[in-house]
Design a protein that fits this description.
The protein is of the alpha+beta class. The protein has 14 helices and eleven strands. Strands 5, 6, 7, 8, 9, 10 and 11 form a seven-stranded mixed beta sheet that branches. Strands 1-2 form a two-stranded antiparallel sheet. β6 and β7 form a beta hairpin. α7 packs across α9, α8 packs across α9 and α9 packs across α13.
Length: 516
């Protein structure tokens, strides 16, 4: 006999001919959902287990209808995802059970005949309890037609409109959720940034309180003694670097616990005195790796900002005429004074050929050689890249590219070692001290001319001496060799930022730009 397996449901094919009975789905996942909804303990369906249509909603049935079949013979089909959801165990009791019991009791009392069929009516049910009188309760029993949805009713349900409405509500909900997620993410990022800034500030304050040396509380004289620069120039460099914050540090690790002024002070102390990193780390309450990171970062930053920006071109004769000293009277077309200088380097251990080419016959050691060019007012206007110590002055002049800066009518002052007349561009003059050339002594005119040239050439010697005052260039070790050119060139930039080597140059410049 065909019957419904739902607990408490007594529907059968004979007793309820208007109902449809449905087999359990073959999909295991959907079958498990049916079993969970039916909620029978220690029970599993068999191939003949069925569930009647009383436990499904109208929306669970397919709306497809066969046009050539009458309504009463139309077969009701469940949707593929339909699940029992009505009149199940744990919900309100099935009124059909009351209907069956009521009819049976009424037949037994003779109230209802066996041929009568119950319809939608009100039935009096009598119940007795111990020690109490008989109570009559009224139960309204719906007919079977109310539980069997017709195909016309299914077609009248505006499912598409409901689906569109649900889609719209879901889209609005998604947009609201997305906006909330974006707002939460933005607030989280702001909170993380605020946390990082607060931690950095606290670390900076704690580190500053334990530092022995700091640029913020130094006087002008102390800044000059430690860096060779005035405090105004020092602060100007700090402002210039702050324009390009945040910096990309050499090791990739950002140093936030030290201010820009203190980091610049660390770099200049290293340049001027070549202090060990361990000593600087003790002064500034940092690790020696942080000191090296700061030094290499600021070395490359300052080289980019100051050397490549200001020493990439040589000023013309007209630009420095107003600052030319009186000693250059008669040779006012002097564009540059050139000379070479050498710095000791550590012996390469694995490159014997490089060691041989770096040996200087003049210094009797391994050196790196640089060409320095100075304007008549004492400012350094050209610094070449480094060359091995065995390279001649003439070859360095040819390879360094200094000759391409000269124009017709310019005058170049040089030492006797620069026999480069054939290399000079057309119209450019070269002035060298006179040679004895087999003579016992110079004539009076030659001696006066040699003295005049020497008094002008002395400015390049003073500039070179200031460069050599930076102790970091005393010995180029293997760790400094990869960036020795930037070290020398940056030292030249720092020399230009110091007080002028010739007195009155700055005053003459101000007078020429602000005539009375």
């Amino acid at each position: 006999m065909v019957h419904c397996v739902v607990f408490g449901c007594a529907a059968t094919h004979k007793r309820n001919p208007g109902r449809s009975f449905h087999q359990f789905p073959k999909d295991k996942k959907l079958e498990k959902m049916w079993i969970n909804r039916i909620n029978r303990k220690n029970w599993s369906p068999c191939p003949t287990s069925l569930v009647c249509s009383y436990h499904f909603r109208v929306e669970d049935y397919s709306r497809k209808r066969l046009s050539d079949v009458p309504d009463e013979f139309q077969k009701k089909r469940l949707k593929k995802d339909a699940v029992p959801s009505c009149n199940l165990r744990g919900e309100e009791r099935d009124t059909r059970i009351y209907q069956r019991k009521t009819c049976t009791s009424q037949r037994a009392s003779g109230t209802v005949t066996a041929d009568e069929k119950p319809s939608c009516s009100t039935v009096m049910v009598s119940s007795k309890s111990s020690g109490s009188s008989v109570n009559d309760s009224t139960i309204t029993i719906p007919s079977e037609e109310q539980y069997i949805p017709k195909q016309e009713e299914l077609e009248k349900i505006p499912q598409q409109e409901q689906l569109e409405k649900l889609k719209g509500e879901i889209a609005v909900a998604h947009s609201v959720i997305a906006a909330l997620v974006d707002k939460t993410r933005s607030q989280a990022q702001q909170l993380d940034q605020l946390k990082c800034d607060t931690e950095a500030t606290l670390l900076s304050m704690a580190a500053q309180s334990s530092r022995i040396l700091s640029a913020t509380n130094m006087t002008n004289a102390e800044v000059h003694n430690f860096t060779g620069l005035s405090k105004d120039i020092f602060e100007l460099i700090v402002k210039q670097i702050d324009r390009f914050q945040p910096l990309t540090y050499w090791t990739g690790k950002i140093v936030q616990s030290v201010s820009t002024s203190d980091q610049l002070l660390i770099m200049l102390l290293k340049m001027k005195f070549d202090l060990p990193s361990v000593f600087l780390a003790k002064l500034f309450n940092l690790s020696h790796t942080s000191i090296n990171n700061i030094f290499l970062t600021y070395l490359h930053v300052m080289h980019e900002l100051f050397f490549k920006e200001f020493l990439n071109q040589v000023p013309s004769v007209a630009k420095h005429l107003c600052t030319t000293p009186q000693k250059f009277h008669g040779i006012s077309n002097c564009r540059m004074i050139i000379d070479c200088t050498e710095f000791f380097i550590e012996t390469p251990r694995k490159d014997l050929e490089a060691a041989c080419s770096s040996f200087s016959n003049y210094k009797k050691r391994l050196t790196a050689k640089y060409l320095i060019g100075v304007a008549p007012n004492g400012a350094i206007t050209f610094i070449s890249d480094g060359y091995p110590g065995s390279t001649s002055d003439k070859m360095i002049t040819k390879l360094s590219g200094v000759l391409q800066h000269f124009q017709a009518g310019d005058l170049v002052l040089a030492d006797k070692g620069f026999v480069i007349h054939e290399l000079m561009p057309s119209g450019v003059s070269l002035n060298l001290p006179p040679f004895l050339a087999g003579k016992k002594q110079f004539t009076e005119n030659e001696a006066k001319f040699c003295k005049k040239i020497a008094s002008c050439r002395i400015h390049v010697e003073r500039a070179i001496e200031r460069i050599r005052n930076y102790k970091i260039l005393n010995l180029i070790t293997s760790t400094k060799r990869p960036f020795v050119d930037k070290l020398v060139q940056l030292c030249g930039v720092l020399v230009n930022l110091q007080s002028p080597t010739i007195q009155g140059v700055f005053e003459r410049y101000l007078e020429s730009n602000n005539p009375v």
